[in-house]
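The protein record filed here.
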Amino acid sequence: MQNNLSFRFEAIIFDIDGTLASTNRLIFASFNYVMKKYANKTLTDEEIIALFGPPEDIILKQYFNSKYEVVRKDYYDFYRRNHDSMVTRFKGMETLVTELSEQNMNLGIFTGKGRDSSLITLSWLGIHNCFDMIVTGDDVQNHKPSGEGITKLLNKFDVAASNSLMIGDAPSDITAAREAGCKVAVCLWDSYAKEKIVEMKPDYVLDTIDRLKSVLIKSK
């Protein structure tokens, strides 16, 4: 990326799952590992997706209550042990994030997942230190689709919502961005709800990393 580029936004906020990396296969496997072990059942992908919103800890507490601490340890042990073999990179995404950071862009994360799993993935991608602030599901009272996490980030950056962009892959990202008043771009490369998010008419629909770059950088 060239120096002294002109950007359309003063702050860019990324989701993690399905946006920065393809993690759904690992998430589904992690939930079903503990479901099978402690409840002798498995969930469909659709049933697990329906749980998304609150972070893993809240979901696990709701399901396992008194066994929560043991189940939580097993969940994250499985998540860490299988992360590198089950998560897929999106070619060019780490480079883009690194270059945005080098251009002193205000960069944030707003994800529904918890801090532990978020940091596992961001560290693996090698871009953890690129973000000025990371807001996870552990850091808000109102989880996605609430825009609380976006508002926290914008307050930290002291940037107007109208000058910021949320980049995600799910209907909840669109709803959260609209509640917070910022623009929203949705990635189609790993979304589990492509038809739904297109119907919701986000500001930008992204099918490639190059398309994302064209949205972020003003043409001369």
User: Anything to note?
Assistant: The CA atoms of residues 98 and 130 lie 6 Å apart. The chain is about 45% helix and 15% strand. Residues 68-86 form the longest helix (19 residues). Residues 11-22+89-216 form a domain with the Rossmann fold fold (CATH 3.40.50.1000).
